[in-house]
Amino acid sequence: MQSKSAASLVLLVLSIMLSTLLVACGDGQPAFCSKLSKSADLSGIASALRSSDLSKASDEAAQLSELAGEAPPEIRADFVAVADSIAEIINLITTERDEGQSDPGQFERRREELNTRLGQIDSRSDRIRVWASEQCGIELE
C-alpha cells in the first residue's frame, strides 16, 4: 500500500516538473536545450512506475540525474535536487518492496523527509520551467 502512495508521489512530481514538452530549439540557444528537449519528457519513469517496473524506473532516474549534472549553472542545483528526489523516492519504493518495513519507524522518517523535500520541488521545477522557456523556447508543463 505504501509503495503505491510513494509511486503516486513520484508521478505527481513528474507531472509538476516536466511531463509534457512542446519543443522548439534552434540556433543561438544554449547547447543544453537540445539535450533537454530530447530527454526531459519523463514518460519513461512514469510508465515504469505505473507498470511497477522499478528497475526501469531506476534506470530512467539515473538518466535524468546525468542530464541534471549537465544542466547550466543557472538551473543545475534545482535540476539535481529534483532528479535526486525522484531517485530517492524510487529507491524508497524499491527498498520497501524488497525488504518490507523491517523498521517502520525508519521507513516513516525517510518518507517524511522526502515529503518535506517534495514541498520544495514545485519552486525548483518552476525555475527550471522558466529557464527552459526563456533560453530554449521549450514550454514545460
Give me the secondary-structure category. Answer: mainly alpha
Largest sheet: 2 strands, antiparallel
User: What's the alpha carbon Rg, rounded to whole Å?
Assistant: 15 Å
**How would you describe the shape?**
elongated
| Cα distance spanning the termini | 29 Å
Number of strands: 2
Our count of domains comes out at 1
Q: What's the pLDDT, averaged over the residues?
A: 79
| Approximate strand percentage | under 5%
Number of helices: 6
Ranges where pLDDT stays below 50 over 5 or more residues in a row are 18-26
Q: How much helix is in the residues? A: over 70%
Q: Which H/E pattern describes the elements? A: HEHHHHHE
Q: Could you give the order of strands across the largest sheet?
A: 1-2
Description of the molecule:
The protein is mostly helical and 141 residues long. The chain has one domain. The chain contains six helices and two strands; from the N terminus they run αβαααααβ. The protein has helices at 2-17, 32-39, 43-50, 54-69, 73-99, 104-136; strands spanning 21-22, 139-140. It has a two-stranded antiparallel sheet with strand order 1-2. Residues 18-26 have low confidence and may be disordered.
